[in-house]
Design a protein that fits this description.
This protein is α+β, with helices and mostly antiparallel strands. The protein folds into three domains: 62-150, Penicillin-binding protein 1b domain (Penicillin-binding protein 1b fold, 2-Layer Sandwich); 161-348, Biosynthetic peptidoglycan transglycosylase-like (Penicillin binding protein transpeptidase fold, Orthogonal Bundle), CATH 1.10.3810; 403-696, 3-Layer(aba) Sandwich (Beta-lactamase), CATH 3.40.710. The chain contains 23 helices and 33 strands. A hairpin with a 4-residue loop joins β16 and β17. The longest helix has 37 residues, at 13-49. It starts with 12 loop residues before the first helix and ends with a helix. The mean pLDDT is 88. Keywords: Antibiotic resistance, Carboxypeptidase, Cell membrane, Cell shape, Cell wall biogenesis/degradation, Glycosyltransferase, Hydrolase, Membrane, Multifunctional enzyme, Peptidoglycan synthesis, Protease, Transferase, Transmembrane, Transmembrane helix. InterPro entries: Beta-lactam/transpept-like, Glyco_trans_51, Glycosyltr_51/Transpeptidase, Lysozyme-like_dom_sf, PBP_1b, PBP_transglycosylase, PCN-bd_Tpept, UB2H. GO terms for molecular function: penicillin binding; peptidoglycan glycosyltransferase activity; serine-type D-Ala-D-Ala carboxypeptidase activity.
């Protein structure tokens, strides 16, 4: 009889569960390892090359003070206030200033200029009237040749996101800020591996002790992962994913790299619809300071805001923000991060300094549009948003404010036409840089920018080009030559006969070229333009920067060519430079956020549109326009020989133009209607009044005409337009090219034969 084999005992339920758990654990471990490998590959790549997008931050010009510079104390103080310098009785730190008996003393902040970083510097600037008398370094009393203030921040340009940040290296961040941040947010940052159980426990105890949330349990690395790569969703999966990603980052990157990235990424609130990220820009937003200048109270507030940028917004909830700041100051004092004296001084400070809380107080749509256009034409690195850009422009806030105020106040005064529009462009002709742009009667209006896009006939503004080329190409033509203001008919193929008229419908007959230019007589300009040649006039416009179509018709001699105010400004910049053309630009230099040069404007040799002698003669004539011609109201306001300029009026009073320039700036104003209907304004009754308002708010640098060696003072017969000796009582004294006169030339303009006894000697 055979025995039955015993069947193995069935595994118990517990054992089956354990086995299943083991298998699932192995599968889970495999999946986790695979996921970690995936995270390691993707996250490392993204963090290495594309941590965040940094915008292009736009800055204006740096106000540079030099001995003998034309500027007064009030203008410098206004600039300091604009830059959020604080008035104090005793200067102790950067970002402070005080008025003195002879000028102003200030402590210039450190700043990374386009030319390189400059340290903080304390100086005394003394004035004599409207000029800088001396600049002295303090406290050593050493004389300085110049001092440069940091440029004003204008705004941002980006490639699509709405995040603002100014990237700063960890070496620029105050150690107190780093220590306070780690104290509040992650005490074990340098000791954990991305996730800290002890931090979670410590935060729970601290919050329980304070009966409120004063610390968070997430590490800085976890917060960074959440800000960079995850959504705000509250779920276990997101939290687990956050922890795994933090571990990967901590393994692959150094603590300092993670901390620097956090300091540039952490969110601090909104400014005009833009999200402010990073301590670099937050320092500017809330305190008007560079990050290096932050004091203990500033640091406590910034660290406090991190917990809830909206809830602790010091601009909206100052009491709430102060309570949070003071709590952090207590913790800083308790951890010996500050002395008792520092603590007492810090808690007594206001939450925000007066005048801060905005990066940009006013938007500048028309100037920023120009910058954006030019930036798009530069050969920038394809990945520039990874390092950000700092764009340094020629923008001058003083001149921009003057232009905006002028167009707002003067348009209702010159006309009650509600559809009257205007545009202003101001350029520094010495630097060929655009300093101010207004493209609408409402300077804040976003949309059609008339300063660069309104193509309007320019009228008499074209006449200086005709005269300049005549001085150059016609051997005997001078300011004292005769021109003919007499009726003229021009035959045109397949066109009606053209009969040009003067503005007053009258004819003066024979007159000197200087008078014809100063009085803006039309018919003499047409005659001269025909003699110079229509094709030559077209060539001159192109050499002066015009790249739009130019009609090749006789009427071009009276400005029948549509140009923008920007194009006109470039032409008159060339005239102000006595015939030397350089294209106008708004951008001077571009660096990345670390200060490395990306683009620097290089000036090639200017293009000579006409000779220096011709340029001098036409400038003399345009100075006459202001001294005694159609722009004489400006001479009444500012004095003779300080400005040159030209008026322009088109048919049926549809366009009112005026351009004026001193030794540094060209101011162009256009007034008209978008529907091209008459506005009943001449250049002198409309645009000139706006120009005058702009100039009244700017320091005038009197025009200095540089006479070439080939030009001399000459006498001209006032009726005949021929050279006569300069000592004749009837001589009109005007500059002219050097010319040897006949020895017996008399004051009548004829050779006067001497009596025989005079000829003996």
């Amino acid at each position: 009889m055979t025995r039955k084999k015993k069947s193995p005992p069935k595994p118990t339920l517990l054992r089956r569960i354990l086995m299943l758990g083991l298998k699932l654990s192995i599968v889970g471990m495999v999946i986790l390892v695979a996921y970690l490998i995936y995270l390691d590959a993707t996250l490392t790549e993204r963090f290495s090359s594309n941590r965040y997008q940094a915008p292009a931050l736009i800055y204006g010009r740096s106000l540079t003070l030099e001995p003998q510079a034309v500027i007064n104390k009030a203008t410098v103080v206004a600039e300091l206030r604009r830059l959020n310098y604080r008035a104090v009785n005793t200067i102790k730190d950067s970002g402070q200033y005080r008025s003195t008996e002879y000028g102003v003393e200030f402590y210039r902040r450190p700043f990374d200029f386009a030319t390189g970083p400059q340290m903080a510097k304390r100086v005394q600037v003394n004035f004599a009237g409207n000029r800088v008398q001396s600049i002295m370094s303090l406290p050593d009393g050493r004389s300085l040749n110049r001092i440069q203030l940091e440029p004003p921040y204008l705004g941002r340009l980006s490639g699509g996101n709405s995040e603002d940040r100014l990237l700063v290296g960890l070496e620029r961040v105050p150690s107190l800020l780093i220590e306070t941040l780690l104290l509040i947010e992650d005490r074990d940052f340098y000791h954990h591996s991305g996730v800290s159980v002890t931090s979670i426990a410590r935060a729970a105890l601290a919050n329980l002790s304070a009966m409120r949330t004063v610390q968070g349990g997430s590490t800085l690395t976890q917060q960074l992962v959440k800000n960079l790569y995850l959504t705000r969703e509250r779920s276990l999966w997101r939290k687990a994913n956050e922890a795994l990603m933090a571990i990967v980052l901590d393994y692959r990157f150094s603590k300092n790299e993670i901390l620097e990235t956090y300091l540039n990424e952490v969110y601090f609130g909104q400014d005009r619809g833009s999200a402010i990220h990073g301590v670099g820009l937050a320092s500017r937003l809330y305190f008007g300071k560079q990050v290096e200048e932050l004091d203990a109270a500033d640091i406590a507030l910034l660290v406090g805001i991190i917990k809830g940028p909206s809830y602790y917004d010091p601009r909206r909830y100052p009491e709430r923000a102060q309570e949070r700041r003071d709590l952090i100051l207590q913790l800083m004092f308790a951890q010996n991060l500050m002395s008792k004296a520092q603590y007492v001084a810090s808690v007594s400070q206001p939450v925000l300094p007066a005048g801060t809380g905005r990066l940009v107080t006013e938007n500048l749509p028309h100037y920023m549009e120009l910058v954006k256009f030019e930036l798009g034409r530069l050969n920038l690195p394809a990945n520039w948003q990874q390092e950000g850009l700092r764009v340094f422009t020629y923008f001058d806030p003083v001149i921009q404010n003057a232009a905006e105020a002028a167009i707002i106040t003067e348009l209702p005064r010159v006309s009650d036409d509600e559809k009257l529009q205007g545009a202003i462009v101001v350029a520094n002709h010495q630097a060929a840089g655009v300093t101010a742009v207004v493209g609408d009667k409402n300077p804040r209006q976003v949309g059609f920018n008339r300063a660069v896009a309104a193509m309007r006939p320019v009228g008499s503004l074209i006449k200086p080009l005709i005269y300049a080329d005549a001085f150059q190409s016609l051997p005997d033509f001078e300011l004292g030559s005769l021109v003919y203001d007499e009726p003229l008919q021009l035959e045109q193929a397949n066109q009606p006969v053209w009969i040009p008229q003067n503005f007053d419908k009258k004819f003066e007959g024979k007159m000197l070229a200087y008078d014809a230019l100063a009085q803006s007589r039309n018919v003499p300009a047409v005659r001269l333009g025909i003699e110079v040649g229509i094709e030559r006039l077209t060539e001159l416009l192109q050499m002066s920067g015009v790249d739009s179509p130019i009609p090749s018709v006789p009427a071009i001699t009276l400005g029948a060519v549509p140009l923008s105010p920007m194009a006109i400004t470039e032409i008159y910049t060339m005239l102000a430079q006595q015939g030397s053309h350089r294209a106008l630009q708004s951008i001077r230099a571009v660096t990345n956020h670390e200060g490395l040069m990306v683009y620097e404007r290089q000036f090639s040799k200017p293009q000579r549109v006409f000779s220096e002698a011709a340029g001098f003669l036409v400038n003399f004539g345009l100075r006459g326009v202001i001294n005694e011609g159609t722009g004489s109201k400006l001479a009444d306001a500012f004095g003779v020989n300080k400005l040159a300029g030209k008026s322009g009026t088109t048919n049926d009073y549809r366009d009112s133009w005026f351009v004026a320039y001193d030794n540094q700036h060209v101011v162009t104003v256009w007034l008209g209607r978008d529907d091209n209907q008459p506005v009943q304004l001449t250049g002198s009754s409309g645009a000139l009044r706006v120009v005058q308002q702009v100039l009244e708010q700017m320091p005038i640098a009197p025009l200095q005409l540089n006479s070439p060696l080939v030009v001399e003072a000459a006498g001209f017969h006032p009726q005949l337009g021929v050279r006569i000796p300069v000592d004749c009582n009837n001589a009109r004294l005007l500059p002219a090219r050097q010319k040897k006169l006949p020895e017996d030339l008399g004051c009548s303009g004829n050779i006067e034969e001497k009596p025989w006894w005079q000829r003996l000697f």
